């Protein structure tokens, strides 16, 4: 496959200022007529030929200025159209078959309705077009179809006309006044019902809001609507961004490759991120709905009004929008808890990517298939990079930078460089060296060595950015490292410092201490680095108890836990350290000053994926065993506190308020710690929690704990859960995932049986992910010593690839982590990659991931 390089960018030779699309809708056959006003780009090459992308479509008719076109040719799937003048009208007809579109890109059928997904390169599956984000057009969309099958007809912008046709058909016309790239085009047709509300913007304009779902689901849209209204208000208050159409529609569809899509004025969502009520959605699901609704809405400015020049700039919209959704969720809930969750995701998903064969900078230099670059690096590390600018500038100056960015580039297709320049000019920062974060892949490793004499503390900070594919030699990165120096006697500090670390080795001194202070480093996770600190266990324990930065307090406990978990793999448990951990956790359980949402975070052990990262080449089973051993130890040592906590939290009535959510969180965390210590008692408590539950958080939490136990009630509860929620796709997804996450030795047998269950289908990405992504993330299953877990994932990729290459490709990176794993398993993982590579008909998506993962 062809490799596309960032530096090869050239502006388009032809522009399309206006397009009219006419759809005759049908599930089996949809006819599309596109009429484009095209004009030569004064800033482009003077190519006489217009290049129109296509994918899996054929030209049914083609005319230029009303006459049949002459001299056009096909170059592979693309159309080459010679045009003699500077401006023309081009009309093309294509035929689509939505019912058989299993890739879920372009126009497809889902659960009886028709919908589109065009980012990144799906529009070319609808009509021939210069399908690149720097070609911006005004769209008018006319659609007609049978009224009984498609009573609701939606597209971008506002509806400008509608009417009845013949033979039970009807039509609607939608006009979007804002020029947009083709990836933001959307259309939805089907039987839908809506929750509606009117939002008044900061300038008093009324906007009609609607959340469309399938009949029967409308009761589960209240939280999505609330989240949308909150997002609109928050973006006005925090970034000064107002909505710019009279209509804002959201539609939930059950077959979707990703989470959601920010099409202008018509966001399309995976049902998973819209539907939520207490009986079917956990607190985590509620949070995810809020975050994703916010994310897609925020794209209206960071992505739509200012879009990307080319796909290498993806982080321009995604990194910035992730930061915006993180800030929004923090503002709606608990800031420190949200920060902890975001860092946990970064460490579990992005750090492994950054140190593996698929590592790439947040602005990649090349790709074969752009869908493979919707990664944790582009999204989450991209957000961290902009967060560092926020840290360096402070909130007011950052806002000046973002205002300037939006003003300067409104209506444009911009680059990451444009964003950085606007931040420099608006926020008054010098980001010359900081631009390295866009260029270099890899997580910097930072070590801090401290010495104390005569009242002076000397910190020697060293950093090393590891080599990554294509980048063997790295320069030191500019790292804003927030620190505080604690007085041992008083337990307080005299203020935070932000050290700008930008050399391979640097020395910082601090005077005026009577005794060596305790170091609190990278507070708030001010930089996305791996910190190797020499801080003693005693000092970490001090911070775990006393640090006033909630994130740093969490971090101190995690560090202590990590030391013990990895140390025990090498040379067995360290009694003194285990006791220190138990004491620190006991303090967490006893501390009335901590709310339960934070307590729940502090009770969680580091993820196996993060521990593998730190101990490569890792024996995943040894890490898992070490984790279970520590859980058992803590479960025993803290037994009375944990059961008391479980009892206390069980008495709290259901509500969506923070206290009640916190109670549910600690309830299940207590069960998790207890489960490794006393199976029988935990099974009794889990069963009681399940049977008493009046909400999904408690029910799922109890069932997930139960799924790993060998308890008599286990199978009954699993059957009860399935029976209770039969027909509710999102909850049945949970039923599959709960079983695939089991830590029992028979988990792979169970997964094989589940793959044959009548509710399992390869056609629905949520269902496939619920079973197999859970297997890939379950160390007991995936790293089974026979290699069966690896084979299962490779078999899945090969079976899914012909149907849905994008979703199939997302499983490959799990096998690509072979270098991090001990040699015997690594060889089996690599062998599966080699087996996949031999398959001649692999998609471009899977082939790119497999080839890069083997090297
Ligand atoms: N911007 C959206 C990306 C997206 C996507 C990309 C490839 C294939 C399918 C997709 N669906 C949505 C999602 C977002 O970041 O908001
Ligand atoms: Zn996004």
From TrEMBL:
Q: Which GO terms describe its biological process?
A: proteolysis
Q: Where is the Aminopeptidase N-like N-terminal domain?
A: 91-184
Q: Where is the composition biased (Basic and acidic residues)?
A: 838-850
Residue intervals of the Peptidase M1 alanyl aminopeptidase Ig-like fold domain: 442-533
**What are this entry's molecular-function GO terms?**
alanyl aminopeptidase activity; metallopeptidase activity; zinc ion binding
Q: Which residue range or ranges hold the Peptidase M1 alanyl aminopeptidase C-terminal domain? A: 537-854
At the top level, the lineage of the source is Bacteria
Record-listed E.C. numbers? 3.4.11.2
Where does the record place the region Disordered? Answer: 838-855
Report domain Peptidase M1 membrane alanine aminopeptidase positions.
224-434
The UniProt entry, under PANTHER family, shows: PUROMYCIN-SENSITIVE AMINOPEPTIDASE (PTHR46322)
Protein name as catalogued? Aminopeptidase N
């Amino acid at each position: 496959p062809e490799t596309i390089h960032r530096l090869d960018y050239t502006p388009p030779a032809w522009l399309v200022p206006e397009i009219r699309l006419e759809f005759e809708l049908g599930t089996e056959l949809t006819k599309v007529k596109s009429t484009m006003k095209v004009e030569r780009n004064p800033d482009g090459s003077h190519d006489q030929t217009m290049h129109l992308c296509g994918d899996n479509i054929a030209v049914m008719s083609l005319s230029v200025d009303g006459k049949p076109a002459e001299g056009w040719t096909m170059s592979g799937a693309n159309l080459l159209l010679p045009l003699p003048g500077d401006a023309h009208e081009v009309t093309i007809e294509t035929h689509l078959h939505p019912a058989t579109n299993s890739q879920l890109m372009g126009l497809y059928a889902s659960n009886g309705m028709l919908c589109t997904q065009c980012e990144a390169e799906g529009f070319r599956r609808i009509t021939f077009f210069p399908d690149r984000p720097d070609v911006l057009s005004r769209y008018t969309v006319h659609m007609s179809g049978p009224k009984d099958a498609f009573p609701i007809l939606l597209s971008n912008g506002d509806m400008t006309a509608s009417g009845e046709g013949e033979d039970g058909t009807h039509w609607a016309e939608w006009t979007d006044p804002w020029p947009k790239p083709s990836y933001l085009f959307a259309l939805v047709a089907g039987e839908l019902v809506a929750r509606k509300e009117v939002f008044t913007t900061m300038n008093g304009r009324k906007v009609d809001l609607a959340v469309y779902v399938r009949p029967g689901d409308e009761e589960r849209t209240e939280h999505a609507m609330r989240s949308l209204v909150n997002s609109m208000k928050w973006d006005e208050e925090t970034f000064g961004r107002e909505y710019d159409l009279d209509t804002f529609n959201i539609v939930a569809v059950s077959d979707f490759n990703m989470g959601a899509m920010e099409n202008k004025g018509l966001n399309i969502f995976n049902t998973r991120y819209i539907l939520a009520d207490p009986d079917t959605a956990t607190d985590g699901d509620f949070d995810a709905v809020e975050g994703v609704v916010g994310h897609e809405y925020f794209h209206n400015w960071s992505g739509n009004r200012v879009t990307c020049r080319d796909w290498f700039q993806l982080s321009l919209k995604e990194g910035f929008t992730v930061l915006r959704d993180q800030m929004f969720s923090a503002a709606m809930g608990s800031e420190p808890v949200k920060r902890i969750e975001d860092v946990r995701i970064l460490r579990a998903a992005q750090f492994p990517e950054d140190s593996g064969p698929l590592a790439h900078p947040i602005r990649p230099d090349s790709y074969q298939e752009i869908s493979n670059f919707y990664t944790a690096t582009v999204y989450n590390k991209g957000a961290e990079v902009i967060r560092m600018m926020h840290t360096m500038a402070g909130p007011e100056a950052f806002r000046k930078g973002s205002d300037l960015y939006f003003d300067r580039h409104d209506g444009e297709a911009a680059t990451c460089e444009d964003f950085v320049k606007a931040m420099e000019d608006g926020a008054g920062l010098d980001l010359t060296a900081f631009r390295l974060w866009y260029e270099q892949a890899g997580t910097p490793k930072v070590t801090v060595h401290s010495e104390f004499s005569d009242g002076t503390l000397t910190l020697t900070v060293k950093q090393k950015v590891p080599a990554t594919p294509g980048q063997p030699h790295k320069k030191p990165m500019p790292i804003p490292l927030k620190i505080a120096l604690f007085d041992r006697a008083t337990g307080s500090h005299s203020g935070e410092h932000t050290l700008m670390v930008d050399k391979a080795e640097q020395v910082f001194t601090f005077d005026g201490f009577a005794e060596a202070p305790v170091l609190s480093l990278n507070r708030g996770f001010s930089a996305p680095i791996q910190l190797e600190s020499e801080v003693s266990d005693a000092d970490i324990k001090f911070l775990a108890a006393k640090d006033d930065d909630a994130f740093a307090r969490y971090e101190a406990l995690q560090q202590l836990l990590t030391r013990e978990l990895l140390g025990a793999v090498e040379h067995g448990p360290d009694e003194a350290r285990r006791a220190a951990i138990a004491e620190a956790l006991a303090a967490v359980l006893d501390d009335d000053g901590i709310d339960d949402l934070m307590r729940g975070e502090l009770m969680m052990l580091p993820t196996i994926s993060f521990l593998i990262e730190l101990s490569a080449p890792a024996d995943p089973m040894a890490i898992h065993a070490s984790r279970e051993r520590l859980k058992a130890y803590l479960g025993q040592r803290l037994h009375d506190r944990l059961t008391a906590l479980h009892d206390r939290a069980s008495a709290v009535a259901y509500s969506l308020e923070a206290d009640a959510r916190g109670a549910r969180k600690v309830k299940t965390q207590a069960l998790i710690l207890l489960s490794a210590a006393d199976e029988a008692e935990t099974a009794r408590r889990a069963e009681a929690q399940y049977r008493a539950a009046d909400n999904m958080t408690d029910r799922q939490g109890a069932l997930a704990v139960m799924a790993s136990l060998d308890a008599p009630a286990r199978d009954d509860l699993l059957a009860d859960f399935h029976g209770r929620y039969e027909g509710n796709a999102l909850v049945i997804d949970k039923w599959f995932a709960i079983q695939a996450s089991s830590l029992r030795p028979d988990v792979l047998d169970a997964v094989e049986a589940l793959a044959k269950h009548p509710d399992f289908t390869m056609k629905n990405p949520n269902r496939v992910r619920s079973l197999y992504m859970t297997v890939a993330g379950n160390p007991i299953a995936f790293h089974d010593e026979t290699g069966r877990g690896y084979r299962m994932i490779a078999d899945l990729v090969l079976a899914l690839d012909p149907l849905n290459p994008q979703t199939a490709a997302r499983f490959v990176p799990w096998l690509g982590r072979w270098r991090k794993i001990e040699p015997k398993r690594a060889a089996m993982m690599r062998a599966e990659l080699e087996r996949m590579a031999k398959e001649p008909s692999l998609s471009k998506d899977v082939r790119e991931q497999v080839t890069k993962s083997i090297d």
